[in-house]
Amino acid sequence: MNKEEQVLLGFRDLYNKLVWLNKDKMEESLKGYKPSEVHCIEYIEKNVDSNVTKLADSFYMTRGAISKLTKKLIEKGLIESYQKSDNKKEIYFRLTEQGKVIYQIHEDLHNEFQERDKAVFEQVTDEQFESMLNFVDKYNRHLDAEIKKLGVNLKSE
To answer: Can you give the pLDDT at residue 156?
Structure first.
C-alpha cells in the first residue's frame, strides 16, 4: 500500500471510529431527529440569515433537498422562516426555542467528545497542526477543482 492509500485509509478508519463511538450517545440524546436535521439546525444557529442556497452549498445538497429538509424542521417546530423588510423575495431561517434546545444538546455532546479526545490533541505540536491543516486545505482545493471540471458548482457564493 502506498502512502496516499495509507492516508486515505487512515482518514476513513478515523472517521468510521468517531462515528461509531459517538453514534449511540447521539442517537440516545437526539431521539427522533435525523443527523441531517440536527446538522441543519446547527448551521442555522451558527450562520445568520441562513437560506436554502447557503444550506445547499454547505451540505453539498440540491436546493430541492434542502427545501424538503427545512419544511420538515418547520413542521417539527424547530425552525421558522422569515423575510427581511428590504428583501421580500428571499426566505431565511432561524431556530425556534425548541430548535435551540436541540442545538444545545448537540453542542454539549460535541464538547463532551472533544473533552474525551483532548489528550491526543494536547500532544500535537503547532507545527504538526499547521502541516495537517495545510494538507486538508490543499486536498480540498484539489477536490473543488475536480468537481468544477465536471461542470458542477457546489458553492454558489
So the answer is: 45
